[in-house]
Amino acid sequence: MINKVSVRTLKKIKDNNEKFSMLTAYDYSTAKYLDAAGIDVVLIGDSLAMTALGYESTNCIGIDEMTIFTRAVAKGVQRAMVVTDMPFMSYTVDIPSALTNIGNMVKNGANAVKLEGCNDYIAKLIECTINMGVPVMGHIGFTPQSQNVIGGHIIQGKTEEAAEILLKQAKRLEKAGAFSIVLEMVPENVARVITQEISIPTISCGAGRYCDGFVMVCDDLFGKFDSFTPKFARKYGDMKTLITESAQRYIQDIKNGDYPNENEVY
Ligand code: KIV
Predict the structure, then answer these.
(1) Which of 71, 93, 116, 236 is deepest in the core (most CB within 10 A)?
(2) What range defines the domain where residue 206 resides?
């Protein structure tokens, strides 16, 4: 019997002063391998707008596309918690349409959803989402869906005042019922204080070493996406070279008449 990762598992990890891992996944087989490797949380991040679909920003992806990727990833996962990013405009228009969109992700296999930002509306939406039976992961600091308002990929919480606001936001998300919070591009001393001050797990996305969990975009980890790599991403593989060289060898084998050989025909 598989011990499925739940909101309780992640809270226990924090309470025991341990760490958990989270990675994005965008397709069935990658999700299956990440799950088998022991990843605790698999995120269908809206980063797939850029990494898998080649769009310019995360704001270009719609709810229908996120649903397809959620279904594919969820089918590959048995143990990890499956979290789906609610895409731009799918949860900010009004609460009824947000709840319909969120419920739809759960019907397609998500165990929880991630919502960016923190204001009165988001706090209310978190409460309604939890009442509907869906756990919510918060996301503050740099929030890519608001990058046009922020004015670019800018580190958040650098001044004392900005750090104070982040801490207040984290406490507000906790009060609203979020089960964890992604802190993106936040100085590590600020993330450390937030992690100490709230009882739910924090997840570092370029927020240093002292959070309870850590997340990376899988294409950065695999060395597959080469358009832009943030400072905090660590490359563990070189899939770009693997794919390119495999394709080159295949092309060469066809040209040489080596593919297919006698064992590869009917
Ligand atoms: O979209 C994404 O991949 C994300 C994570 C990197 C936190 O939101």
Answers:
(1) 116
(2) 7-235
